[in-house]
Amino acid sequence: MASASATPPQAVSRRSGSFGEKVFALVCQAAGIFVLILLGALIIELFIAGLPAFRAFGIAFVTSTDWDPVRELFGAGVSIYGTIITAILAIIMAVPLAFGVAFFLTELAPPWMRRPVGTAVELLAAVPSIIYGMWGFFVIAPTFARYVQPTIIDTVGELPLIGFLFQGPPFGTGLFTAAFILAIMVLPFIAATMRDVFEQVPPVYKESAYGLGATTWEVMKGVVIPYTRISVVGGIMLGLGRALGETMAVTFVIGNANRISTSLFGPGNTIASLVALEFGESEIGSLKLASLLALGFILFVLSFAVLATSRYLLRSRLKV
Fold first, then answer.
1. How far is residue 301 CA from its own chain's centroid?
2. 30 and 224 in contact (C-beta within 8 Å)?
3. Torsion of CA 305, 124, 146, 173, to 10 degrees
4. I need a surface site. Which of 15, 75, 130, 286 has the fewest CB within 10 A?
5. Are 299 and 244 spatial neighbours (Cβ–Cβ below 8 Å)?
6. Alpha-carbon gap, residue 269 to 16, rounded angstroms
7. Model confidence over 67-84: pLDDT tens digits?
8. Cβ contacts of 147 within 8 Å, gap of 6 or more
9. Poorest-pLDDT segment among 54-68, 99-113, 232-246
10. What is the distance between the alpha carbons of residues 176 and 157, in angstroms, rounded to a whole number?
11. Helices within 104-144 (DSSP H only)
């Protein structure tokens, strides 16, 4: 009788496991809800804090190029322009380099070289942004001013249609230099993502292509890239998101001028660099502080738009 009424050990195990799973699910759900609440609170706080600027200047705040604290005239046009231009240029520079690194590590490099080179690339992501900024200011900017920019001005700057983008005095600092520093900073993120997804391609796919007589590049173009294009796009968007919000490194080398220059060698600023420079001099409750917080809200909207666009692209590619 005692043995008949005893609860089987297996049933006890099931009940304890079910209870543990419920607790784990509740904890995970609470963590997800907490993240949403935190994100929503951040958005609302930035919008409310920047509301005086939107009320004072209206929609013109987004397009205005004014930034005059003395007359209390503020606009986000220059910083939005600088943010978008430097981020796009950084991606244009970084993606080919990242692809070359990933292609070399997965297809061309000997096995003994892949780990140290891959580790070295990943270590670039661990370098603080202020170190990149100091390196850019003391090394890259003088080098660009003495050698790179004069050469580009004398060659590409003389071409029709696009020459105006590469004209002006070679100061070394400016939008192009900031984009170059950003490209180096986002390179390890994009390269590591590409390398990891390239390694996930089933070997049988590549071996089949090689068996048909395909070259290494043909295998990469016809097999690896189509198989991994979704993750590659995700890695590029990750790098773009990093480039949009970078602060200190850009502040060192962009020139920090509140004007829009038609030349990529001209000075400018970004939302993040402008906030970093002006925030410490803003009084609580002032229109200037509200304008800076409104810039933070705009930067958040830009980052959200990039992520939403990437999700849309990934979803459309999945349907294909």
1. 14
2. no
3. 30
4. 15
5. yes
6. 58
7. 988 888 899 999 999 999
8. none
9. 232-246
10. 14
11. 111-123, 129-135, 141-143
